[in-house]
Amino acid sequence: MKISADFTVVPDDFAKAAAPEYRTGGVPVISFPFYIDEVSPDAQYLHWTLTDPDSIPVCGFEWIHWTVANLPIDALMFDFNDSHALAIPPDFSRQMASMIPEAVQGRNSSASKFVGRENDPAVTMRYNGPQPPDKDHDYYLHVYATKNPLPGLNQGFWMNELLHKLREAGETPDQAGIFLTGRA
């Protein structure tokens, strides 16, 4: 599997400099587009995490920005004439529930009781764009592909639950990742 994007620095619309109309509660909520190529032919479902390892010195833990599970590959639009057969479009996080209701999104770090944000699912259970407070941060998008859906994951799952279900799946997931920079 290969993960790619048309950028190495997350564009402003999806990050800290997003316009007010691209924010909810001050948080950028329009997810960025990316591509998933060369997926194992046996794979039927996609799952991913977007985290910020550079947040550890700032807040004491790796910030979770977005988690997705049980996205059926065949629910995505395929264009076999395109060099990127699997494309995750911009703003997918907000549109996913109506487009692909069987796929679920987990909680991000905004849902933590230690952060003190309101419990708005539009912020706590969807994409939260990069907003590094101190310097540019590197964000890690890690995508997994499995033959079967991961059982027991519902809207609002926690990232550790996703990782446990991947480990318990009885298969070795196809996987890859990419680092993208978020500007301070």
TrEMBL record:
<comment type="similarity">
    <text>Belongs to the UPF0098 family.</text>
</comment>
<dbReference type="InterPro" id="IPR008914">
    <property type="entry name" value="PEBP"/>
</dbReference>
<protein>
    <submittedName>
        <fullName>Raf-like protein</fullName>
    </submittedName>
</protein>
<dbReference type="InterPro" id="IPR036610">
    <property type="entry name" value="PEBP-like_sf"/>
</dbReference>
<dbReference type="InterPro" id="IPR005247">
    <property type="entry name" value="YbhB_YbcL/LppC-like"/>
</dbReference>
<dbReference type="Pfam" id="PF01161">
    <property type="entry name" value="PBP"/>
</dbReference>
